[in-house]
Amino acid sequence: MNKMTKIEKSFYLVIIFTAIIIAIGTVFVRTKVMQTEQNLSDVQYEIDKKKTRHEELDQQIQELSRSERVIKIAENNNLRSNNKNIRKATK
Q1: Is 16 a domain residue?
Q2: 0.70 exceeded by the pTM?
């Protein structure tokens, strides 16, 4: 049997060390990718919640600003309509 020289031993050690470093690096990168994907999912969930709330508030604005509702409230409080003073509120 041939004995391995110091250069061969060093070469094989470098290859093994490199393989271990690559494996550790791969696990680290995959972990970071998974964390980033989870953060992205969390942010997307928050965005969706805020969009839903915004749509609900827009719907409330539309319901509360209907002219029939405003006229009825005015009539219930003995107010009369004066078209010169009517203004449309916008967001």
Answers
A1: no
A2: no
Higher pLDDT, 23 or 5: 23
Measure the CA–CA gap between 19 and 90, rounded to whole angstroms: 64
Counted residue by residue, the chain has a size of 91
What is the rounded end-to-end Cα distance, in angstroms, of the chain?
A: 88
Residue 41 lies in a domain: yes
Concatenating the DSSP letter of every residue in 57-88 gives HHHHHHHHT-HHHHHHHHHHTT----GGG---
- Residues 39-52 have a mean pLDDT of 98
Contact 61, 91 (CB under 8 A): yes
Residue 12 inside a domain? The answer is no
80 near 74, Cβ under 8 Å?
yes
- Residue with more model confidence, 61 or 49: 49
